[in-house]
């Protein structure tokens, strides 16, 4: 780890707040990992209204912001490049694509000849590519192709995403490293009450309407005290629309807005199952944190966590109402001995495959390889073990 001691690693992203959804969660985790590796994380982003409320989650990182001019998407912030250049960075790690941050990353790389690593974080998924494709085509021509050609390496969360990145970005050097889970809590001794928890952003790809419709359809076959809690955050318009939709749904569904730190821990303590019927994901941190807390999950294949099915920590749940209904009924019919077995399997994954120490070691090797004086051929040999065949 000494090789990274004192190195200034720039974590560049569109916005350093909850408005950046799962990308912000990835940045929060990367700050923590970099501190573990004795490096200095420097978060660089365009400023937005939610940053002040969320800055505490980046404790230990330097934070440098640039003002947005015009609409929040794609986040035109012309001062991003000077901010990057003034930060004295040894490496820039871009989190997320399709925003103006990609152009700033390219300019920094060209000006300094410094290494650029790109984590698309699920944004090359076919579902995401089709959404507002014309905007992505403009971004591709305006700045993304240049950023991709200047990147020393790409990071994929899963082998499936590595294929997406290769297809969309033409990338060759792709290291596959999953997100890391929180440290596991004490093993569960009893099964919680029949509360199912959704924890994440309010976004159409999460299929929240189908989730709530599936819940209501399943309700006659669920325990009488069963409840669904939706703990989510997003733009004001999306949250308002969700609240209106929830009004006639009845008392078995509750919306509790954003949940972090102690509020999140309290919800995880009470939940029997997590549910995430997404159409598109990178690798959902909310499920990993649920596994750390010993909570099994009902998740769609788009969550890219087949380990959950294979190891008995998750049930398969499609993105449509009927599939969600079936999964919810199955989840809440599980008896305590089987549930406790699933809980132990979930924590084993959180401490093993997705454990912090294991993931930090993988990132140490990637960063050290990129910071070394290596030719492209040497770098390819160094990280070839992480390139899916």
From TrEMBL:
The keyword Isomerase does not apply. Its EC number is 2.4.-.-. Gene3D superfamilies: Glycogen Phosphorylase B. Residues 21-167 form the Glycosyltransferase subfamily 4-like N-terminal domain. GO terms for molecular function: glycosyltransferase activity. It holds the Pfam family Glyco_trans_4_4. It comes from the Bacteria. Keywords: Glycosyltransferase, Transferase. It is an enzyme of class 2 (transferase). The keyword Glycosyltransferase applies. InterPro entries: Glyco_trans_4-like_N. This is Glycosyltransferase.
